[in-house]
Amino acid sequence: MLWKYFLIFSFLIQAVLLFGNDTISNPVNFAIKPQYGLILAHSSKIEHLTNTNPHGVEAELSWLRIKGKNYQQCNCYSKAGLSFLYINYSNPGIVGSSYSIIGFAEPFLIRTKFLQLSARMGIGISYLDHIYDEIDNPENLFFSTRFAFITHIDLNAYFKISRNFNLMAYAKYNHISNGGIKSPNYGMNFPTFGIGFNYYPTGIIEFPGFSKQKFIPFNFLNLYTFGTIKTIEKDAVNPEEQRFIFGFYGIAGRKIAKINGLSAGLEYINDGASKEKIDRQNLSTDHQQVSFLIGHHFLFGMFDFSQYWGIYVYAPYKVSNFYQRYSITYRLAKHILIGATLKVHGDWADNFNLLIGYSF
After folding, report:
1. What is the residue extent of each domain of the chain?
2. What CA–CA distance (Å, rounded) separates 260 from 151?
């Protein structure tokens, strides 16, 4: 299973390098971000584990994207980079700690001489030092694999305090899950907040005075295919099994504002994990799924952060009538898209997939 994490990590490294790629380098900056938070009880089965306060620290390397080409990609200034996040969940016997490497993109929403406000979106890989074990650690229903995926959305405020330093205040919404690769997999939602420092080695940054592009709406048509392997737990009769899940979805959409787009489409999934469960129960139910998608897109240059609401049209084995899909893609070439996507049913992650797409 480690090959999947390696591929995703490679994608993040390449994406960040592409963000900073220019004939003249964008300014590098560093940050240190202590943080403190809480765990949300999204299920009664993990509620007894949510009365602690996660705390930790994040170290960050990023590029301030102020070149003309970078600005024109999203009609705004932005940052992109990598961070290392350590979180202690204040429950050393059961939940332990996580160690994460995260790639992120961060457009600035408001910018003045002494204050900047921004939003950040990130995705990465986490190592967990305590996981579920039916004998040694049966209470940890959050995590059942050593490696998991982490995503987060942040709001940040930067206050200039000297030539080289900014004081930072931030609020983060974090989610860690193995994406349904193995159960139990309730995952964890944990908001954190804190105050930190941002350091610019080159000193005062002069933002060029680029004129904003006139917004022109446009249509897009994309087709994606995805796949993953999911583990089905052993039971009294059957051993633990791994089954392949694959599918595709196509969307037609329109960019309606500077960084916003809307879309609609169809999705098909061949769920091998559901087929294994159906076979174990000696049922004749079909394991295939067809659904209708409605999507919203944050469009930042080559990146697309998309959120979909899925409604099942045909899914005999699924109990839920709807789901959410969260995707991040990067335009590798004129027509080729690569990325990752997470399918979620309410408060639990169904599966995490790598995806490749074609833009017409």
Report:
1. 2-199, 218-359
2. 20
Per-residue pLDDT of 104-118, as tens digits, reads 988 888 888 889 999
pTM of this structure: 0.77
- Distance between CA 13 and CA 26 in Å, rounded? 17
CATH code of the region 218-359: 2.40.160
| Angle, CA of 124, 168 and 128, to the nearest 5° | 30
- Establish whether the linkage from the previous residue to 138 is cis, with ω within 30° of 0: no
What digits encode the pLDDT tens for the residues 134-180?
899 999 999 999 999 998 989 999 999 998 999 999 999 999 988 77
Which candidate, 290, 311, 307, 310, places its Cα nearest to that of 298?
Answer: 307
> Which two structure tokens, joined as six digits, stand for 155?
């709001």
Rounded to 5°, angle at Cα 144 from 226 and 11: 35
Give ∠ CA 357-250-316 in degrees, rounded to 5.
120
What DSSP line would sit under 190-207, residue for residue?
EEEEEEEEEE-TT-S---
Tally of residues, the chain: 360
Identity of residue 63: W
